Amino acid sequence: MEKSEIKIEKSEVLRYLGHRGQTLDGQTLQMLDECISEMLGAIRPRFVYRLFDIRQSGAGVELISSGVVLRGESIKRHLCGCERCALMAATLGIEADSLISRCEHRSMTRAVMLDACASDCIEKVCDTAEREIKEAARREGFNTKFRFSAGYGDLPLEHQGEIIAALNASKQIGLTVTADNIMIPRKSVTAVIGFTKAAADVKDKCSVCENRENCEYRR
Amino acid sequence: MNIKDFLKDNFLIFDGGLGTMLQKEGIAVGSLPEVYNITNPEIVLKIHKKYVEAGADVITANTFQASELKLGASGYSVEEIITAGVGLAKSAGAKYTALDIGPLGQLMPPMGTMDFDDAYKYFARQIKAGAAAGADIIVIETFSDLLEAKAALLAAKENCSLPVFCTMTYQADGRTFVGTDPKTAAITLSALGADALGINCSLGPAQLADAVRETLNYSTVPVMLQPNAGLPKSDGDLTVYDVSAEEFAAVMREYAKLGVSVLGGCCGTTPEYISKMREALADVKKPHIEVKQRTAVTSGVKTVEIDGDEIAVIGERINPTGKKRLKEALRNADYGYITGEAISQTQAGADILDVNAGLPELDEVAVLSKVSAEVQAVTNLPLQIDSSDPAAIERAVRLYRGRPIINSVNGKRESMDAILPIVKKYGACAVCLCLDEDGIPNTAEGRFKIAEKIVRGAEKYGIPRESLIVDCLVLTASAQQDVVLETLKAIKLVRSRLGLKTVLGVSNVSFGLPARGIMNGVFLAAALGAGLNAPIINPLSDDVMRAVHAFRVINNQDKSAEEYINRYGETSAPAAPERRTEPSDLKQIIIDGQLGSAEDAVAELLKTKSAVEIIDEYFVPALNVVGEQYEKGVLFLPQLMRSAETVKCGFEVLKASVPPDERASKGKIIVATVKGDIHDIGKNIAKMLLENYGFEVIDLGKDVPAEDVVSAAVERDIKLVGLSALMTTTVRNMKDTITALKTAKPDCKVMVGGAVLNEEYVKFVGADYYSKDGQAGVNIANEVFGVK
After folding, report:
1. B296-538 domain in CATH 3.20.20.20?
2. Are A182 and B377 an interchain contact pair (Cβ–Cβ within 8 Å)?
3. Mind listing the pLDDT tens digit for each residue in A124-145?
4. Candidate from B30, B111, B637 with C-beta closest to A162
5. Does the distance separating the beta carbons of B758 and A68 come in below 8 Å?
């Protein structure tokens, strides 16, 4: 994908940084602008997705002909009524990690800001992928549910490896996962988007999150 | 016929995509194709045979992911899958069979957590099985990280005698996923002894034109190319590729004419592509390729060529000789200080960094590798591994992601016997010191003779002479003024008669004289004039860097003097007014987070106050104000941090001028991110805040095994350990670490932090305290150490 498609949103970066209306001084704003452009300069955004027919099974939701069964009640509930889904993976590339970690030696303040910029940035890459997926769904006559990722509700993080394998994402976009299910590059996302004949989703992601009561980032 | 002999006169044709063909046979997406070697051997064999019919000389066994990491839960062993896979390839009837080795699917530090030695072990197991099963070639393919490729290449070289081919995968922007470019890969893999190297996967043949040209230009071994059949496109639930067999063959024919000699296909290519390509090559005569050896060094992502026309600056600051602060950092494993030196030299314009960790009380084998890894994590510059201990050199060079310089070998028999085999094995460049058993000759001719002797010695090992960089050595002008000019004469001799490049530690000339910068700058200019290629200098010194920048204009390296003008064009403008900070303002400077202002204020205060007084009267009260405002929500995180960082900069001034025992630590605390976890921003924030409050923090880094935390805590009698984990999956490693710690050292308190943690998890892991943020960590530390 082209980098020029991506815009980092200042208000979102500030939300990640825990901003709650505090006065923004000049130094903070200037650093924020610099970090946004530095991050946009460094990233090599990529995404990959693939469509599968799905069916509900006892333990969860099966992605037909992929060998993947997404386990748990949350994903069953979320994909209830869906016949198909898109499996997607997106990443900013290792350069984002490297920019942040190198900056930690120079200025922790800046590193934390860059990290927040990257968090918003990967969301924007996912949004781009999602737009393409929605278009594919529409062509097939479906509406879509919101992006659901391993770690939401009771969908286990242990799925990351299988999802990456099913998308051939290591080869396609350079996405890897450690023995402890941490994705590297760190600013990466995998997600499932359900295709349904019912109306599109309006509920927000926070409503399925187990941690919604004490999350400082909740919208 | 031996494959290397075959390659001398013939193109070597590989097969095409295997995964593509297996998918046509209905293999499930995301399943392990290697299992088919046992469950559906007839399908695998059928595909191999089609490729033999299409004209492939080499059949690649179905073993790309046959590592114990990937086979994990498959129910089959590495040996079972590989023996079956190589057996199927052999029975297809091709001239040669290749054992296929793909990446392990995990990244190595600093990006990931996979250990080099573990990766080597996985690869070695595959290679032993493949060789035992009768493979003729080892093919290491689709790699992104040169260090992982190096682990595989060394595993092949050290565990079998088969030829090893190695290909990397480049994206449309010309770099691999981790940033390696084709030139860097070609230089590094050639030097490491790959028998062929090149490019596979990711793009169609036409899009690889630049990468192919670069690879041909810089490889010293045959070049291999296996492109995809164009770019993948989704067609419904299927993946299709956009380049036809005819187009593929036509482009490959052009590359063959340019000099690519090992040709095949990757994803999306089928027997049709290989057969069309074979036809297209029928009337192409294999061109003769002139091999050019180069004096070039690389990091994982960058090449620096010392090519005679351009000078390269080697930064000398990471060397503890005569540097108190660096010695202290090495002893305390304070890698932050060392990486700071790497960053500042990089920013000052160094091209290569020398890394030396030689302190008699340290285990240099371990420490040099560690320092080298930490430095590589913060700079893209190639490194010069500097030690007098051959074992320390070998370990550091082995773990180095690229082609390093070894500093150094000299004319003594003992040195040549120990160092040259390492230079050869790892394909390094080497600094050759013109001294031997009789010391440093006084005359240029004497030093030249030693250089000649080292070149002859190296050639016996098959080391190309371009890998050698000669250091003609300079004696101090204060002691042996009469022989200083001999150095310059020797440089001229080495350049003209041996045709080799030269390196020189310049600053020795001024030892014992005042205003050393003046001496160093002038001597450097003279040495550059005599033909010095790579001065080893302090890039932070204006005196020497002025000579470098000016010389780069004179020798036509800095085109249109652009860099020179950028740097010095403004010098006639009035200097920025000197900042006058009243030291009494220090508190306000911190509260406002005025980065760059605390240093002067602290330096001023040090004239009248002790370090402890500055910490207690300025740092802590100001930080308390900021901390309070943060807790009340008046400030948000970046503002709190900027104040903390302002203090940190002030602290560096304290550290530089006050010896450790006078800084009066309020308590020693270990911080670490637990095993398996690589998120360390939170830990680093906590560390900075704790240090600001006068605690001594021992940072063990990220992905730290429980036993390292325990041994550090026991050895240093630590009362408080801070552990961080960001993922639910690594919280259990936190529990294991705490359990081990409490058993070995029951009086040690543990505080934990990290995004997923909450009070419930804290009970689960058995921690004493939950630190919801860095500020909370300070309060906990104050409580544990009884600070009011």
Report:
1. yes
2. no
3. 999 999 999 999 999 999 999 9
4. B30
5. no
Instruction: Give me the pLDDT at residue B572, please.
Output: 52
| Neighbour tally for A148: CB within 10 Å | 22
Instruction: Give the mean pLDDT of chain B.
Output: 94
* Helix, strand or coil, per DSSP, at residue B367: helix
CATH architecture assignment, domain B578-641: Orthogonal Bundle (1.10)
Residue B264, min C-alpha distance to chain A (Å): 18
Which two three-digit tokens encode residue B183?
Answer: 């030139």
Comparing alpha-carbon positions, the chain A residue that sits nearest to B266 is A171
What count of CB pairs under 8 Å joins A to B?
161
Q: How far is A203 from chain B (nearest CA, A)?
A: 24
The single residue listed with the structure tokens 């001023």 is B604
Residues of chain B positioned with their CB less than 8 A from the CB of A101? 110, 377, 680
* pLDDT tens, position by position, B191-218: 999 999 999 999 999 999 999 999 999 9
Q: What's the number of domains chain A is made of?
A: 1
Among chain A residues, CA nearest to B635: A22
pLDDT higher than threshold 90 for residue A209: no
Q: What is the mean pLDDT of chain A?
A: 92
Tokens of B432: 């050759």
In a domain, A218, yes or no: no
Residue B554's CB is within 10 A of a number of other CB atoms, namely 13
C-alpha B188 chain-centroid distance: 12
Give the whole-angstrom CA distance, residue B92 versus residue B753. Answer: 58
- Domain at B665-788, CATH homologous superfamily: Cobalamin-binding domain (3.40.50.280)
- Domains B3-281 and B665-788 agree in fold: no
Two tokens, residue B346: 């990089």
A171 vs B678: CB contact, 8 Å cut-off?
no
Domain-located, residue A215: no
Residue numbers of the domain that contains A111: 9-199
Tens digit of each residue's pLDDT (9 = 90 or more) over B574-628: 444 445 556 668 999 999 999 989 999 999 999 999 888 998 899 999 999 999 9
Question: What CATH class has B3-281?
Answer: alpha beta
Q: Please answer whether residues A61 and A79 qualify as being in contact, where contact means their C-beta atoms are separated by less than 8 angstroms.
A: yes
Q: Which residues of chain B lie closer than 8 angstroms to A154, CB-CB?
A: none
> Measured at the alpha carbon of residue B534, what is the angle toward residues B531 and B537, in degrees to the nearest 5?
120
In a domain, A124, yes or no: yes
pLDDT at B31: 86
